[in-house]
Write a structure and sequence with these properties.
229 residues; seven-stranded parallel beta sheet; single chain; alpha/beta; globular; Rossmann fold
C-alpha cells in the first residue's frame, strides 16, 4: 500500500512538472514575469499583493493575478480594487495550486499584454512547495507575527525561494519581533535569496518588491528543490 501511494504521488508530480515546463515556455515567449507567492494563512499576503498591484497600475505596469483559495472569491474581489485583472481559483479544499489549474484559468488572457503575473497560492507552508507552477520566481512570505523561527520549521519552502518577503513590519515593535534572529534563521536555510521587508499599510518595501519581480532576477528554485534539506 505504501509503495502504491508513493508511486501515485510521484506520477502526479511528474505530470504537474511536465505541464509546468510547458507553461514556463509560454510565459517566456510572451515576455511575462511570473511569481508564485507562498505563505501561511494570515501572513498579510493578500494585503501586500493588493498594494503591489495598485502600485503597478499607477506606474503603468501591466500586472495581473491568479488567486488560490479553498473556498470563496473574497480575495479576488478585494484585489480587483487595484484595477488589475484578477481571477479566483477555488480549489475545493485542495491545499495547493497545480499547474493544470494555472493553465485552465489563463484561458482568454493575452499573456503578451501582461508584464507581471502573480500567483497567490493557497495559504500553506508545506504542500505548495512541491508543485512547480511554471513561475520564474518563487516568493516565500513570513510576517512579524509568526515567529522568527518559521524558516527553521519549514526549511524546504524557504530554501527553495528566490525571494523572501517579511510582512507587517509596521507592527514589528509591538509584537517584539527579533529582526536579527529572523534574518539569521532565513540565512541558515537560504544564504543568497534577496530579503524584502514590507508593510502593506505604510507602503514600505512595496516598490522594491515590484522592481525585483519584474527585473532580470535569475531563478534558482528549480535546482534548490532538489537540494533542499
Amino acid at each position: 500500500m505504501t509503495t502504491r501511494i508513493v508511486d501515485l504521488r510521484k506520477g502526479i508530480l511528474e505530470k504537474n512538472d511536465l505541464l509546468a515546463q510547458s507553461l514556463r515556455g509560454r510565459f517566456t515567449d510572451a515576455g511575462v514575469r511570473v511569481s508564485n507567492w507562498v505563505s501561511s494563512p494570515g501572513s498579510g499576503k493578500t494585503a501586500l499583493l493588493e498594494a503591489l498591484l495598485t502600485t503597478a497600475v499607477e506606474r503603468g505596469i501591466s500586472a495581473a493575478a491568479l488567486v488560490g483559495d479553498c473556498a470563496t472569491d473574497n480575495d479576488a474581489i478585494r484585489l480587483a480594487r487595484s484595477g488589475a485583472p484578477v481571477r479566483q481559483i477555488v480549489t475545493e479544499s485542495m491545499c495547493h495550486l497545480e499547474s493544470e489549474m494555472i493553465s485552465t484559468y489563463l484561458e482568454g488572457w493575452d499573456l503578451a499584454t501582461i508584464d507581471l503575473l502573480v500567483v497567490e497560492n493557497v495559504g500553506n507552508l508545506v504542500c505548495p512547495t512541491a508543485y512547480d507552477l511554471g513561475e520564474d520566481t518563487r516568493v516565500a512570505l513570513i510576517s512579524v507575527t509568526e515567529g522568527e523561527d518559521k524558516p527553521l520549521k519549514y526549511p524546504q519552502l524557504f530554501h527553495s525561494a528566490d525571494v523572501i518577503v517579511i510582512t507587517k513590519t509596521d507592527i514589528a515593535a509591538a509584537v517584539e519581533w527579533d529582526r536579527d534572529a529572523a534574518l539569521a534563521a532565513i540565512r541558515s536555510v537560504n544564504p543568497a535569496a534577496p530579503i524584502v521587508e514590507t508593510s502593506a499599510r505604510t507602503g514600505d518595501g512595496v516598490l522594491d518588491l515590484l522592481d525585483l519581480l519584474i527585473s532580470t532576477l535569475t531563478p534558482t528554485h528549480s535546482t534548490q528543490l532538489q537540494e533542499a534539506p
